[in-house]
Records
---
Amino acid sequence: MSTSEGSAPPFIDPDAWVAPDATVAGDVRICAGSRIMNGARLVAEGGSTIRIGRNCIVLENAVIRATSRHDCKIGDHCLIGPNTHVVGAEIEDEVFIATGAAVFHGAQVGHGSEVRVNGTVHLRTRLEPGSTVPIGWVAVGDPARILSADQHEAIWTIQKPLDFPGFVYGVDRNAPDVMKTITQRLSESLGERQVTAAGAPTVPGL
């Protein structure tokens, strides 16, 4: 299903394919040769953009999101595995994001990198080209440190100054009622979405 949010409909190259039960919503551009498989969700919210390069494969139940503060770009020849979550990040060419991995807002994943099963690339983290995040490990910081998930204190020491609430939602971590503020803002912004089902126009050569 392709839908538009406001005045920005998706654009799908004639040589791309989107499964009938996938969702492509908002200002999303999908280039030639790319395949969006069953149950995948590509959603560009609040005037943001998603760009999917050439010959990318987005497998079942993957979620790729952009928000009003963070666009999302996937380069050419990328494989986005099942049940992955990529939001507001930049993925360069020939990257493999394996099953269940997560890549967060403002992250940059360099050319030819791999984020293996259940790996995490945290917000504002920069992975150098050719990097590997092992199964279940966490990449955090700029440049990234790659740490096992049991090293919580070391991860938090780097992650805390990256300021998830401020960078993602514009909310001061130390303000009172942080979660009330975040969820109220999200409720209001998501409630304003005017999603109208429509067939996606195609753009030759996109």
---
Amino acid sequence: MTEAVQGVVGSRVQWPAVRPEVVAEVVAGLSARLQKRLDGAAAKLAERPVERTGEDWRIAVDEETELVLHAPGGVVATSDGVRCGCLLAPACVHRAAAVTVCPLADGEPPTEQAEQTAQAEQTAQAEQAEQAEPAAALGESPAAAPVPLPEGPQDDAPAAGTLGAAERAAVDQLHRVGSAALAAGVGGTGAVLQAELLRAAHRARLAGLHRAAAAAVAVVTRIRAARSGEPDHRLAELVAGLRELLGLSTALSAAAAADTAGPGVAALRGTARQVYAAAGGLRLYGLFSEPVLTATHAGVLTWSVDAGGGLHTMAEIMPHTDAAAAAPQAVGAGNRAVRLGDATLSHREFTRAGLAVQGATRSAAGRLGAGASVRAVRAAGAAWTAEPLARLWAEPPAAQVERALGAAALPPEVRPAGGELLFLDVTLLGAVPYGPGGEPRLLADCGGVVVALRAAHDHPGLAHRGNLALLATAPGLRLRVIGRLERSARPELRLLAVGEPPSAQPPATQPLEAQPLEARPPTPALALPADRAGRVNLGLERLQTADLTLPPRDAAPPLTALPAGPLPPATPVHLLSRRVEQAVTGGRAVLALGTGAARGDRARLRSAGLATGASLLEGLLAAAVDQPRDVFGRVVADDHDAFAAAWLAAAWYEEELASALCATAWSEDVPGNRP
């Protein structure tokens, strides 16, 4: 079967994915002359039509030359999978341009064999954990699973917790190339520099520095999205990725210089795969499901709660090759069966039901394993207002915000499940202009704090925005909600699911139009069908007008302004953050041009009490200007280490300040927060 697609830059996901090390290897094989032509060649190749036949992607470079990408499972795993028919192959620019256009593969290739291997590993890890318990009781040391050695010659193994010579060399290369990418900016980080960063990431992965390697690959992915203008590009994510990469390399360099050992170094190394430990028997209660939609994958993530109140997740996420079909794939994944034992209910059904699980395995991040030894049967669920689910809403909102901000600072592999979620009881106030831009936002009262409710995802193919628009027509509606904290100087929440509050009235037995005016409730209320069990997954299910019991139109006037008047002026943290972002987009040279205009910014920061921020901004601009020159006054290349250190200090300060302002914004003592 042959499928023809148009591989334009904005639809790069239609190309097969490629392993990062393949990109580094192919680009390294180019001559210096061809490397200069690589970016232009990649832009031209991205406009060529792509024809797929089975596991081969074919691109007609010209009338006589054809490029073939062999991608089993949709991933080009080796450089031999990139074949070109031109005379210069394999050292031709066409092969390098092809791997530059292809999206980077994330993790292992998404094949059935890989899934079976992962399940087998989960089962083996669970059995090993069970065998370790009696051995520990006898004072014996359980045997560790053999760890495969990385390819290539390696130095002698270092002491536990310390960094060896191979790791130190990998860290130095990562920091050097990452600093060069920061100094070059998005516009200057072309395919060659991207390949250098991927080569450094591959070297770090072979040395066992999995967290730093993953950060480098993520930075390259976001730089590609920024250069091609992809719709899902977010500058804040690119800034966060560079901050993570340079922060990790700096911390690892400091640990290597001090020759220290301990659990902190192990956390900086990271792990290659999620480790699943035996969790025994679990009684799970479905909580909610949310669609997952990225440039390469789509599916659903389902949350559940055990009898002790702990959160767990199960995912049904698969790769996609067509952006238009991604949203339907994510919504349809909610109807697929839960992959846990012999359970025969879908993800959407599980959010209103339960499971009794035996032999469960669980990762540190709360992901449930689907190994062959796991057994699960359907059981009764629980309402959000009943235990053990109700205890999630018992924590004060301010404490939940502190917990969410702390969880966001942890690595994903050790971040507690649901640490970023908030469980709140709110009363809708209506939609009014809100924030610096004055855009209409749905506001809600949460225990005396005005919170702006936002859609969890803006994709039009998902139900988030439509459901939020319908809720905005019901001011006074009381809801029990689940959302993800949006870090902002004003309280904001991205809604994931809504449900009936603890004191909700029973649904009316007659349609609203058939009820007399005096019989209608004075305030709006949810009137969900019985099969909804009093809750709605806002990304997968669409609310209807009949799901809301509304009072007469003249019962309450619409909200036209903030209940407590205008909010106080925001702290001018943007004066520092925009310079941090400017360095990422334009590079060191562009930042150096704005030193004169930044004098007023430093004065405003000091007048606002942010003297440290003013000093860091001054140091960042000074480092951008301070470049070595030769005797003729020409700028010569340097390692950009001082500039990267100044940028990293400013970026981390801005990050911590933004978190502190977010935590303060959820306090009832802030003027303008009281409804």
